[in-house]
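User: I'm writing a tutorial on reading structure tokens. Could you give me a worked example: one chain, its sequence, then its tokens, then a sentence or two explaining what the tokens reveal?
Assistant: Sure. Here is the example chain.
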Amino acid sequence: MDTNLLHLGALALVGVLSAAINTVAGGGSFITLPALMALGLPIAEANATNRLGVLLQAGSASLTFRSAGALPSGFAWTTLAPTLVGSLLGATLSITLDEAVVRAVIGVAMLLMLALMMLGPERWLRERPEAASVGRLSQALAFFGMGVYGGFLQAGVGIFLMGGMVMLSGLDLKRANALKSLLVTLLTVPALLVFLPAGLVRWPEGLTLGLSSALGGWIGGLITLRVGPRALRATLIVVILTTATKLFGLW
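And here are its predicted structure tokens:
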């Protein structure tokens, strides 16, 4: 069998697995990025090509959540604009700047988020729409920062989005997870508008990853709708810890 077909077949399996993980919590791109680099793609091309998979996976999950009525109405627009602007800036920076310092900073931030989750689990385990005591400007700045990271690297951005929506906006994990998929879908568009003209997207690998990720997103969306906040919190803790150790190069 042709080696390229074997590579694409393996990439399809990776896409299904990572997308299901991404939909349940986040961090699935830390599986797809090494896989793309293992196929010989430079880091810049792997980073850009990965966005096709993210776009279709998150879009598929968003449709699943929408059909189930899990998307909070009216909330996304309060965070959408700063997230999209941040994504455009982050993607632009990613093609010019080194990411080593950013990886270290994000790794520390993830460990801090993990500590917050462990110290205050009640913040995650019940819906508190009245709990958003943080002002709109502060929320906008926070989601702008998440958008910058999402455009720059994307991997793990879902974890930050979920943390922001729960801790800053008072959503429970299930609704935050549904809205996270929508925001990831939308913030991927401006990033691709930067990467495509730069010629960094590899279409065979990207489309293979995208189609398999769409299937994985559908599977992950169904799984998420059937589990409660406690199970999602446990999953998120594992993913945060795994992602942070990956950022520090421990595995």
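What the tokens reveal: The chain has ten helices and no strands. Residues 3-247 form one domain.
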